[in-house]
Amino acid sequence: MTVFVFLADDGRTPEERLKEAAQVDGYGRKEAGREPGPASSKGMEPEPEPDIWRIARTERGKPYFPEQQEVFFSISHSGAFWVCAFAKEPVGVDVQKHVKKAWESDEGAACRLGRMAKRFFHPEEAGWVEKNVYERFFRIWTAKESYVKYTGDGIGADFGQISLAPAASIPGEKGQERDGAGEDRAEIAYLERKSLRWEAEGTWFYSMEFLEGEVCAVFHGGAWDSAKYTLCVCCKEAEESVNIRFLS
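Predicted structure:
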């Protein structure tokens, strides 16, 4: 699986980004070497070849390549970034900028997001988010968004009926026992890492956090916003690796 990251204001259309990303890692069939189209009814010029990278959408709005049905992808955008994930099986991706209202403190934003979690998330997810609202809210939100993009169902009435919270118990080292406090510290250390992998609802998730300035420096250098983002991809089977590619 590969996740491609573009700047949202790079002047490309979504179709141009998808085509470029698909060709970087050799997904799908190539344009070159195809047989010319049949002659037109006037017998003058061959009919133009079909656009093999044409994008269509399902009834629920999920985009796909009708001429490249062996290629699976998902797209998302937030803040400064536009991303797409490519895989050999159905995939969903979501990226979200950690935002708060102009007048909000960190504590105020945490209170607002906590209320949203209780309203829109599964109770198990809301309980998990309570331990560190401003960080964990975006872990769950992007996981849920990536999941409904993976299924193609979109956000619906069952959005809060499924739990995608990472497993709560983190096993200790072999032959070593932890007391309750030690286990809790180990869990927090594990779940607050920049990247995280877990399984839920029969699917597999990979989540990562990054700063806007860290990524934008790859493209242009210099000083950028220090805002934080969370990105999550969802697919059926666990991936040995998730490749992150930055395309300028």
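Summary: The longest helix spans residues 133-151.
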